[in-house]
Amino acid sequence: MPNIPLRDILIIARQESVQMRHHYIGVEHLFLALLQIQGGLLSLILEKNGLSAEYVADTLRRKMERGSSQRLWVGIPYTPRAEVVLDIANDVMLDNGNDEVTERDLLHAIFIEHDSLPIRVFQSMKANLVALKEAVLTLTPSNEAILSSTAITFGEAFDRNANIPREHLFVLRKMFASHASIRIERNLTGFRREALIVVVTPIQADNREDAPVVAKIDQKDSILDEVQRYETYVRSILPLQTARLEENPTVPDASELAGVKYSLVANVGDIPQDLRQRTRTHGTTGLGRLLQHELYEQFRKTWWQQKRAYRFQVWKEYDWLLPPILTLDYVPDREPPPNAHHIKIPFNRPKLKSRLKDEIQFGDIVVLENFTVQKVDRQQDLLKLGIGYGSEADKRAYRMDVRGVHLARSSFYRGEVIERIIGRVMRTRNDVLLQAVRDLQPPFDPRTRWVTLGEHRLPNPLLAYEDLLDRHLNGSMSRIHGDLHLGNILIGPNNRIWLIDFGNTRDGHTLFDWANLEISLLGDALMPSLGDEWKTVEEVLDSLIWLNSDLPMPSMNDEVFTAIASITAVREVVHECLTTKDNWYEYFVALTLCALRAVTWDSMSLGGRRLMFMVAGLALLELNRKYLNTPSHTPPIDEGELTDHLPTPVSGDGSRLTSSGSGTGSRAALPATAPLNPEPQETPERALGEDEKLLLLQAIEPAPPESTELSKPVDPDEPPPTPKEPIP
């Protein structure tokens, strides 16, 4: 029988209140204390009803929010509602003939009162309150822990070289505890190595096989956030034939991991695979048709064609893709030195950008104020912070990573606003990107304004991305997947298509999904089959230049040709999704930043990352060409400033490149560009002021090799700057 007395429950409730900086005891603190009783009545009730104590506790804490560090009263008083619940619990105790209030009495009282925050959390989860209340009166916890005996076997398609960690297997057994055994059919690929995604066939005690499902195991915060996004953005608008979350997540108390199951409308025995695996075995033949006529046609009406006019600064949608602006080593909270840098939200972006570029150096002390916790990574002892307000992407912008916070001894929650945290600068975003490009062993200096590969001379994206983030963009907003790559698209028999992994689904820039998918096609499907050499990258770059232009088709092998056909299909989808007909500017902005992001992915092949850097430069070249050589378009003042910072396309002799047409044939809908090194020719263009001409002349001059600045225009007559601290 449950016999934990109220006096012990109150001790835990007070500790919970102090940790949350509330300094009072409400019904929610009493409820959290009940959840922390190992093998207690409440945990058993939740498990019997398809919920987990950790999941409910996490949801409740998010609703409660952390209080202020300033204490406004002495002691830890009860709230009026808590006093009512305790009075009811005392009456229940007397009715039951007990001498003191126990956990069952208290839990019964909470359900009788029926209007506290825990009850409202249950209602938001659509839990059966009648069934829960009935269980309070009838269930009795067992004194013995019951371990799952679910057996695990592996199918023929499972990669035997893949090692599933013991903790992941533990969560898998918890997820399928009601089955006698499971067969792991196939391991699906993903960019995030800590996540396990597998196709599982559950098997009943009488050996009957259920339909296969996709099981995903990841950090608790990531899984809980994915479920929340699915409920908010996905459930009500999914087409009939696609993956669905039908059950609550499995969140074991004894693990930092959690699991979720995607059910598939499939026949028993049909084992789907993701498109990344399919391309490795079958190549990219027919892939464009699948993406255009199966995937896009399924979701276009409720997702990408639900376009609404959306004007935004690029950083609000794309800053979160890039590495953290600063990576700090935690400094225990004390009075910071007088020369410490303070970064406080809200902030003035231009001033902060200037400080990050010119003032904050390796080893400096930085004080962060009012940043919001985006992720708590206990395995790496890493706290990821963001600005925490605005759109879904905006909230994650301006990421600051703080290492060594001793998270095992600290209580941080996703969504919590941290009033102040201090750290020492270990690296900046520029450091991370520059080192990632150096790791590619490029045949050019990654610090110069132009990068040269064979006959191609492209603007260096490392010098332009910060100013690109400042641009204003006229685009559209719609429901987007948020992580649309080949690993998240499943294909089954009869070319049946499913989407999985809705952890980043949101309302955002419509073209983001398709820029991300083009990157995946190039880096995941094409380059692994071709190799890692720079010469191969140059050959693929030739094909992409042809795709963007009216040039004669270059010679290319069959693999490149079929891959470019898939990219063409993606571009045809993009053409339908453009905000302004035939204006590809917004797409090349997205492509530049998505490609630059992929340069840092160690899960992508070396050749893929090399190509990503050149794709980012090529997309920048298209941006410049479109703006400077389109006579019929005069950009607004704020967008016309693009020429102040982004390099102007030039030929080998220094003359500016020109557009060669508007596209013909099967590529008539694609953006029209020109050869990278044509003969100089006259092209109508908009008039430039004297100041703007000067800026353009500065822009086409290459930066001195010894320069380490990544974004400030360099005057060749100035002495080289003093080198900064080396990248650690």
Percent in strands: 15-25%
Name the shape in a single word.
globular
Task: Please outline the major beta sheet.
Answer: 8 strands, mixed
Count helical runs.
24
Instruction: Kindly name the structural category.
Output: alpha+beta
What Rg is obtained from the alpha carbons, in whole angstroms? 29 Å
> How much helical structure, as a percent, in the residues?
25-40%
Q: Report the span from N to C terminus.
A: 58 Å
Kindly report the average pLDDT value.
79
3D structure, described in words:
- This protein has 728 residues and is α+β, with helices and mostly antiparallel strands.
- The protein is built from 24 helices and 22 strands.
- An eight-stranded mixed β-sheet has the order 10-11-16-9-14-13-12-15. The protein has a six-stranded mixed β-sheet with strand order 1-2-3-4-6-5. A three-stranded antiparallel β-sheet has the order 7-20-21.
- Helix 14 links the parallel strand 10 (341-344) and strand 11.
- Helix 18 packs across helix 22 (606-628), helix 19 crosses helix 20 (558-577) and helix 19 packs parallel to helix 22.
- The longest helix has 23 residues, at 606-628.
- The chain is globular.
- 42% of the residues are buried.
Index terms:
single chain; 728 residues; alpha+beta; 8-stranded mixed sheet; 6-stranded mixed sheet; 24 helices; 15% strand; disordered C terminus
Summed up, what is this model?
The chain is α+β, with helices and mostly antiparallel strands and 728 residues long. It contains 24 helices and 22 strands.
